[in-house]
Amino acid sequence: MYLLDQVRRVVVIGFGKAGAAMSQGVEQVLGARIDAGWVNVKYDHLLPLQMIRLHEAGHPLLDENTLVGTRHILRLLDDLNENDMVICLISGGGSALLELPVEGVSLADLRATTEVMLGCGATINELNTLRKHLSQVKGGQLARRANGALVISLILSDVIGSPLDMIASGPTTPDTGTFADALEIVRRYGVFDALPQTVRHHLLAGEAGDIPDTPKAGDPIFERVQNVVIADNTLACEAAMRKAQAEGFHSMLLSSFVQGEAREIAKIFGAMAREILNSDRPLPRPACILAGGETTVTLHGKGKGGRNQEMALAAALELAGLPSAAFLSGGTDGTDGPTDAAGAYADGTTLARAMSLGLSARSFLAENDSYHFFESLGDLLLTGPTHTNVNDIMILLVK
Predict the structure, then answer these.
(1) How far apart are CA 238 and CA 291, in angstroms?
(2) What is the pLDDT of residue 125?
């Protein structure tokens, strides 16, 4: 319990794709008790607000507006002391929407680093480990800037298992990663030499102990910080399962911890569809199998798409000719990769319909060009911004 009559100032800060909707919720509760507020959101993610200012910036590749917005947040924190309260709204996308690089590393260097890591198939956790060690605000470092004020972080998790230090790169949480961990990741993927020279130099200096690491558990800066996860992928999947049950489907949540190469995960759903059609296992028809998580795509071609669209394209190959089987994969934020689609839909007729248009699913998959494949069929999942972000949801229906 927090007694607002004992608080001098209430300041709201935030960053992430769900920042606008979360800000609306805070305003509904606190109203004019909010003294100041600044929240960084992705472009085209604005909602009407009274007390909190929304600032648009780039995602997934940060831009100059990210740095501008981050500096505004830091200026708000610089005016606080132990008599003040900070409500920090954190959601998926926050890693790109809150950033101030370390001395010597430029915005272009950070963008190039992110592109290298996204292209090599690194997981979001691995990318965030690297980001935290190139930042002045990630990995618990934002908490230090609060000057002893009470910090309450309300978090929508877009990271599997909701590890606090990985969600939006853990700006108000003790960091469990080190410079050595960041270097191990880039070396394991064989991309160390592809990183900008400034980034390589900084990581090596950190590994050698020439630069302090991010703050760890036990650091006094976290004594007045509370981090609370208020929504995650499991909650979304369970809600989808209840809806499927209400529609008459026998339903089960397979897992909310799905990771791996998108096109390989698709094979699992194809196998489950065949099992249900052949033996009514693990559920009798009509069946709905749900899963959640976040897959990755290793780029081999030069097409356009995202992990959910690529999974749907690979699933189309697995479901070809199967009666009454359909698959949908989508990002809960309404955006899949660098596209305006949330994901895509495939069923047992997808390949046949594509062939009638002269489209080869395998060729599009080889080029990582799932967007144009499904655009031609009219089977993209187009939701627009959803103002939330709790990973991806995959749905297999078999009637």
Answers:
(1) 10
(2) 83
Instruction: Please say whether the beta carbons of 118 and 95 come within 8 A.
Output: no
Q: Is the pLDDT of residue 195 over 90?
A: yes
- 198 alpha carbon, distance to own chain's centre: 26
Give the DSSP H/E element, type plus range, for residue 56. strand 53-57
Contact 329, 308 (CB under 8 A): yes
**End-to-end alpha-carbon separation of the chain, Å?**
49
Q: Are 308 and 324 in contact (CB under 8 A)?
A: no
Positive or negative: CA dihedral 107, 108, 110, 111: positive
Query: For residue 378, how far is the Cα from the chain centroid?
Result: 26
Task: Give pTM, 2 decimals.
Answer: 0.87
Q: What is the CATH number of domain 234-398?
A: 3.40.1480.10
- Does pLDDT of 1 surpass 80? no
Residue 391 pLDDT class (50, 70, 90 cuts)? very high
Residue 70 CB partners (closer than 8 Å, separation 6+): 15, 40, 98, 99, 100, 137
Q: Which CATH architecture has domain 4-232?
A: 3-Layer(aba) Sandwich (3.40)
Report helix, strand and coil shares of the chain as percent, to nearest 5: 40, 20, 40
Per the CB < 8 A criterion, the answer to whether 129 and 183 are in contact is no
